[in-house]
Amino acid sequence: MIKLLRCGVVMLLLLPAMIGTAQQKMKTENVFIITFDGYRWQELFHGADRALIGEKKYVEDTTALKKNFWAETAVERRQKLMPFFWSVIAQKGQLYGNREYGNLVNCSNGMWFSYPGYNEILCGFADDARIHSNDKLENPNVTVLEFLNKQAAFKGKVAAFGSWDVFPFIIHEKRSGVLVNAGYEPASGANLSEREKFLNVLQNELPRPWSEVRMDGFTHHYALEYIAKQKPRVMFISFGETDDFAHGGKYDAYLTSAHQTDKFIELLWNELQSQAAYKDKTTLIITTDHGRGTEPLDNWRSHGTKVTGSDQIWFAVLGPDTPAKGEMKEAGQYYQNQVAKTAATLLGVTYENEKKTGEAIKPALPGK
């Protein structure tokens, strides 16, 4: 009995040290969740689609597009289309969702379009009963962004930048207190930088191809300026062009936008790695809100429950705690609802919500 008591005392004395050691294993102090709206896993893992790249119905200049993005093998094509993903993330991080290996990532919501997808990504659970349209309705659910913003360590250090103007409602900017800059909203507040002032002017002067979605270059540069000034610890960045170009049947613009978004993420990563506040202590989690169809051919433009395959998605993780396994070739089933808890877990926070959330992506965590 005395021995048992002594063991118990020793364990109690060691517990703080054990907890501290577990916390020290996480090097991540900052998390950036990044999305490509409606970007297919097929292009990510195979590059330009053979059936679409030469189809004049979808491509204005097939010769130019092939010169930029065509190669005979899928490995060469994907490297040309997404060089940062395949030169950096594939070497230092993880890529999930190549269904040829049985590595499956799916939406758990039954809608397969944007608002339900972003709700699932950011809250960690599907809510088909309440989130079943893209209408600008305040989200009744609490996102991981709002959850973290209520923690003392992250208060005022959470922000979101998106090309689609529905994000203030998805994140519930009013209730959450999370700064959201989306759609054609300009940078605001005191002490705007010269670049922010210029972006505000330029955004008003250029044509607007879509009423609800601005060009991704504005989202990217507004976000970079915010990072430089405010040093957020948690940021959501959503690029929207890929979905809108696809809906418009412009495969050339869809590929070009995906290529540019890959470049935006590279520039963001390099900027983060150049700053002491972020270098070697920041994780990127990159994914999409939904997939797209494949057959018949014109279904690449569409998604939703009537379009087979548009629940098929992907994600990528790059950061100091994530083992460098590259393209994940082990068979397994993952879901969109796992992103929120993965982000919180990497930050050393236990994330809970009113509904059960998806579990953290285990292979993306240290020692897993």
TrEMBL record:
Q: Output the Pfam families linked to this UniProt entry.
A: Sulfatase
- Protein's UniProt name: Phosphoglyceromutase
Which residue positions does the secretion signal occupy? 1-22
Protein's UniProt keywords contain Signal: yes
Q: Which keywords accompany this UniProt record?
A: Signal
Q: Which organism is it from?
A: Chryseolinea soli
Q: Where in the numbering of this chain does the Sulfatase N-terminal domain appear?
A: 207-349
Q: Does the keyword Signal apply?
A: yes
